[in-house]
Amino acid sequence: MDLRHAESLLAFWADAGVDSLYAEGPCDRTAARPQARVTATAAIGGDPPPAFDLEQARMAAAAAADLNALAAAIAAFEGCGLITQGARQAVCWRGSETAEVMIIGEAPGADEDAAGLPFIGRAGKLLDRMIAAAQLADRVLITNTVFWRPPGNRTPTPEEQQACAPFLERAISLVAPKLILCVGAASARSVLKLTGGILALRGQWREWRAVDGDLAIPALATLHPAFLLRQPSAKKQAWVDFLAVRVRLDGLDSYM
Description:
The protein is an alpha/beta fold and 256 residues long. 47% of the residues lie in helices and 11% in strands. The protein has eleven helices and six strands. It has helices at 3-15, 29-43, 54-62, 67-76, 110-115, 122-133, 158-175, 185-192, 198-201, 225-230, 235-253; strands at residues 94-95, 101-105, 140-144, 179-183, 206-209, 216-222. It has a six-stranded mixed sheet, with helices on both faces. Strand 5 and strand 6 (216-222) form a beta hairpin.
């Protein structure tokens, strides 16, 4: 098996929910990660990230009266560990500020980190084509569960997603979309509080609910476009999900 096929297989396992492999002995990798982060930060002359304060993040997010103010609050936020791991800038969102559908991915990649906009690389171009084909162009806002690029484009950790969650929730509240579409397992697990792989989670309507319970929005999980680039045969499943969003949206519109 060549390197390209090995990478594709590993990516398939990760997207399907496999997060560990058996070894000859136990190894607590979660305990080792924070130390490695501090060491890497110190090696470039920086300081470790400050202790995360969830209430402080919620207050900063709640104070934002619109998306521009929220983007500024995110850029000024220092509580996410990804800030110290090589990210160039905060990557917030793109699309309509009055979107009917909010599409939430996992994390920015290298292209997004450089440009400051989400989903603009190969996966983003595929996502845009699917949005256009489903006749949802100009009706969506695209963002991620975290606003800084994880090193090596790895999947964001639950702790990193938790640090950004108050800002994501505030963005949802400000936009007030009719539907939410989570792309990728990491997004579905974080936003919809689910467990399992995306192949089992996709295609089922659920409900996103704000922490305070004041806002509830129908939500659907689907496959990440990066996964579709590696597994083109899965595009049919994702297309079914996009059509379900369009049908559900049209049904909601008919009652407005």
